[in-house]
Amino acid sequence: MVTAGKVFKLSEPMSLADIGSKLSGYRIEETYEEGDYKFNLITEITQLMPKENTLNGVYSHDYVTHAFHRGKTVPLPRTIEAIFSFAQQKGQIFLTVVEKKKLANFIANKLSEIVFEKVGGIVEARISPEVLREFHTKNPEDTKITFFDNVDIPNVDKL
Q1: Spatial distance between the Cα atoms of 26 and 50, rounded to a whole number of angstroms
Q2: Residue 143: inside a domain, yes or no?
Q3: Helices (H) and strands (E) in the chain, counts
Q4: Could you list the mean pLDDT of each consecutive 10-residue stretch along the chain, which spans 159 residues?
Q5: Which helix (H) or strand (E) holds 52?
Q6: Contact criterion met (CB below 8 Å) for 98 and 4
Q7: What is the CA angle 58-96-56, rounded to 5?
Q8: For residue 93, what are the domain limits?
Q9: DSSP string for 78-101
Q10: Are 46 and 60 in contact (CB under 8 A)?
């Protein structure tokens, strides 16, 4: 089974301890009302676990979607939960979000708002083609499938 994920990096220096202190205990609760329906929507950081050079946790976010039921559209609360990990490597801190691209970008922006109090403190990380080729050449048996997007080939979005 393929697991989607995306890697980001911090655009400003910050220690893992400082990131942990800003994320620790983070919880926001909002009330959503629509007609006879009332929900408490929660956004929180849970299962925060600092280790030697990493900080792992779960980002949980409630939202409301609408479903058609018996001739009318009714609101329905949903929850997304995504595992994330901040890791320090060679003086740089990277964030990995285990989720598909669009949702991973959303979560990275939310984590940036929490940690840096603005969007843009966490940005997309890029791997140069040379480094990726070197990784595959050193260990070809462990590279089963590699997906690429934003490729510079006409009419090709993903490869």
Answers
A1: 15
A2: no
A3: 3, 9
A4: 84 92 95 93 96 94 94 94 93 92 94 93 84 76 67 68
A5: none
A6: yes
A7: 40
A8: 6-126
A9: EEEEEEEEEEEETTEEEEEEES-H
A10: yes
